[in-house]
Write a structure and sequence with these properties.
With 189 residues, the protein is of the alpha+beta class. It folds into 2 domains: 66 residues; 102 residues, Cupredoxins -  blue copper proteins (Immunoglobulin-like), CATH 2.60.40. It has 2 helices and 9 strands. The strands form 2 sheets. Strands 3-9-8-5-6 form a 5-stranded mixed sheet, with no helix packed on it. A 4-stranded mixed sheet has the order 2-1-4-7, with no helix packed on it.
């Protein structure tokens, strides 16, 4: 059974339970209750409320852990342990990318198989920094924001020509805001 089918079954069971409670309440709405029944019902409702709160809290904690324990965004306040570091500056309407330790003016070339730290910022407005693989799919993305540097860490596994495009409308020159770089097989790899 697919995960989506399991969630659907749980949702249907929950809706069915709510419907049954609703029918029970409607069926007993006109009946007079004595003091003992009223007290018992109030205690039952208080217990159900506490139990439901505990269940929802447990589900929240479990869902949060399940979705965030492998949080893909690295810490932004430390230096990342990457063998390749690329400084990226977005500006209307171009990307300036330079690898630390690579000669200025040469085209950007990265090695496959070793982590790359991209330090992304903007000189003017917000830009959406997205790297597209040779087959056209997005492999990683972040925001380029003025006065702030976002760090992303990625290990390229496939050699080829990768494109960088802007994902956030940044003015008239947004569409042609494209650059590319090469990822080559690491020497000896």
């Amino acid at each position: 059974m697919a995960f989506q089918d399991i969630i659907w079954a749980i949702a249907m069971a929950g809706m069915g339970l709510v419907a049954l409670v609703f029918v029970h309440v409607v069926a007993n709405a006109g009946k007079a209750a004595d003091a003992a029944t009223l007290t018992r019902t109030q205690k039952l409702i208080a217990g159900l409320r506490k139990g439901l709160f505990a269940l929802l809290l447990l589900i929240f904690v479990g869902a949060s852990y399940a979705t965030l324990h492998r949080f893909p965004i690295p810490r932004q306040d430390t230096t990342l342990q990457a063998s390749q570091v690329v400084d990226v500056l977005g500006r209307q309407w171009s990307w300036q990318m330079s690898r630390q330790g690579q000669a200025a003016g040469s085209s950007l070339r990265l090695d496959a198989g070793s982590p790359v730290e991209f330090r992304v910022t903007s000189a003017d407005v917000n830009h959406g920094f997205a790297i597209y693989a040779p087959d056209g799919r997005i492999v990683i993305q972040t925001q380029a924001m003025p006065d702030y540097t976002n760090k992303i860490l990625y290990t390229f596994t496939q050699p080829g020509t990768y494109k960088v495009m802007c994902l956030e409308y940044c003015g008239l020159g947004h569409a042609p805001m494209v650059t590319s770089f090469e990822v080559a097989q690491a020497p000896g790899g």
